[in-house]
User: Which sequence fits this backbone?
């Protein structure tokens, strides 16, 4: 295949134009082309109002094979042309070590689901344990919580089938450098289970919470059809360890489940699980993360800044990515930007409140929102008596979330940006109208964040106002606290992805090895690969299981 980079077409183009443009670049007839695979589609808005689609495509010729392709590339002497050697992803060959019990996966977020799917496809009959409810019951539970404020600590925006990403924008972009094909495999699988095929090549793909909920259910059903078991309302409450090796899991404080291998894919909010691991002296480390506030602007304002037009149906609502280094040396950046989305109450513990952003697939909401977060390191949240405690970041998160809960009587605390600068409580909205899921009330967010973080937040906002006109407008709506950006702990693993406690395989975002849906799913696949290389399947493979 011949790879073409920087193939540009106007926004309104017909599909055959892609074929014609590729043929023109290669100096051949369109009838010589067997097929074109889009590898990546992005938007070039550097010369707005002239906006283009920019493509990377792989072209397969009808005849001549690799020799003709190489001849064309050699003659053209175009740096945007090359020979593509991309190979399809495949799982490794199975190992020979016997398994006395099925492998267990703790958590059904992206890491757990994709690990389970890979193992099920190879005949390992995994058992997936989830403390929360299935996605349908969970969705009803969350929607009721947003209406009446009654929290279920076991099943909420953070816990349940699909993990925290189920109630988010469903963004699938990742900064992880992938040389093994896991990224494309994740996108391919999501497409197979119901996502739009365009996610496989769009520069910033997203699914949306409404579509993602259907996909995770379909993946779970596939795991079950291949011999796996998924158990809901099944929280791991203890780990049974002997001579440095895990041999069983305690479920709901009463049942023992024996296993040779347990994948710890619990997500970044499983604080009680981290505390249990700490009691068992499982090695863990406090790590840097970031905290901050959600900000809302009119989506039309973001569209105008990014694309030069308020309405851009052909492009979809615009997104942004902002970053700035403050004079104090802190990084401040936008996180989990949700075009046409909502700010949601994402709490998981009684008496504590956290927020997140969420979009539906159509991203049709009036507002854009993102978290503006400030980096924090262990020296920011470790006190004299716990400077070596790996859970010190959790204590810091909880302290902020307790203040957020108290600030507006258990509702989402809200403040206009101008009043945040002035350090006073707002009493009305301005031109920006609120878009929330969950009850909210006015409060002074300056009383939640440490002053050093508030100062960095304001300094960065002033800079962001020069990048996007109106970003620092005084009536932009702030909400807090955004505290669940990434795991505050890392659980070290060796080159075989195993903890110092043998039989325990830390995985995904909660263990500190991912940041978002795609990278968590990729890490789940990575851990599955290691288990496959090591162990013999529990049942014979069939043609269906070898995919």
Assistant:
């Amino acid at each position: 295949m011949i790879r073409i980079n920087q193939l540009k077409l106007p926004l309104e183009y017909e599909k055959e134009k892609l074929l014609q443009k590729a043929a023109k670049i290669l100096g051949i007839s369109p009838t010589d082309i067997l097929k074109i695979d889009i590898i990546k589609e992005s938007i070039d808005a550097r010369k707005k109002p002239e906006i283009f689609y920019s493509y990377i495509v792989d072209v397969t010729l009808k005849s001549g094979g690799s020799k003709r392709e190489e001849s064309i590339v050699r003659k053209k002497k175009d740096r945007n042309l090359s020979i593509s050697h991309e190979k399809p992803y495949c799982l490794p060959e199975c190992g020979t070590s016997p398994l006395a019990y099925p492998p267990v996966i703790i958590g059904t977020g992206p890491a757990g689901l994709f690990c389970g799917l890979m193992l099920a496809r190879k005949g390992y009959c995994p058992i997936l344990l989830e403390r929360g409810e299935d996605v349908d019951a969970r969705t009803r539970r969350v929607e009721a919580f947003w209406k009446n404020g009654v929290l279920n600590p076991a099943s909420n925006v953070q816990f349940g089938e699909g993990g925290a990403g189920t109630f988010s924008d469903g963004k699938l972009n990742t900064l992880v450098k992938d040389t093994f094909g896991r990224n494309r495999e994740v996108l391919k699988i999501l497409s197979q289970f119901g996502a739009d095929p365009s996610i496989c090549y769009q520069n910033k793909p997203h699914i949306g919470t409404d579509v993602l909920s259907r996909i995770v259910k379909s993946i779970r059903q596939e795991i079950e059809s291949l011999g796996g078991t998924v158990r809901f309302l099944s929280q791991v409450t203890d780990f049974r360890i002997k001579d440095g090796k895990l041999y069983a899991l305690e479920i709901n404080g009463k049942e023992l489940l024996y296993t040779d291998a347990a994948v710890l894919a619990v997500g970044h909010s499983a604080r009680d699980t981290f505390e249990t691991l700490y009691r068992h002296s499982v090695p863990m480390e406090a790590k840097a993360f970031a905290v901050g506030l959600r900000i809302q602007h009119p989506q039309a304002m973001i569209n105008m800044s990014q694309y030069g037009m308020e309405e851009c149906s052909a492009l979809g609502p615009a997104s942004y990515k902002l970053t700035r280094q403050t004079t104090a040396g802190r990084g401040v950046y936008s996180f989990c930007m949700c075009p046409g989305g909502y700010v949601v109450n994402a709490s998981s513990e009684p008496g504590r409140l956290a927020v997140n952003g969420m979009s539906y697939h159509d991203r049709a909401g009036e507002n854009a929102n993102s978290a503006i977060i400030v980096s924090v390191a262990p020296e920011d949240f470790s006190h004299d008596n716990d400077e070596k405690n790996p859970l010190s970041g959790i204590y810091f998160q909880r302290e902020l979330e307790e203040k957020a809960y108290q600030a507006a009587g258990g509702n989402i605390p809200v403040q206009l940006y101008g009043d945040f600068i002035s350090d006073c409580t707002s009493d009305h909205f301005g031109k920006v109208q609120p878009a929330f899921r969950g009850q909210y009330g006015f409060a002074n967010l300056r009383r939640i964040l440490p002053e050093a973080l508030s100062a960095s937040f304001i300094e960065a906002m002033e800079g962001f106002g020069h990048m996007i006109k109106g970003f620092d407008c005084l009536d932009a709506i702030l909400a807090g606290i955004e505290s669940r950006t990434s795991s505050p702990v890392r659980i070290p693993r060796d080159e075989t992805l195993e903890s110092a406690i043998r039989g325990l395989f830390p995985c995904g975002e909660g263990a500190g090895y991912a940041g978002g849906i795609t990278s968590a799913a990729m890490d789940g696949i990575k851990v599955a690969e290691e288990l496959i290389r090591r162990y013999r399947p529990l049942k014979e493979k069939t043609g269906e299981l070898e995919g």
Observations:
- The radius of gyration is 25 Å.
- The mean pLDDT is 93.
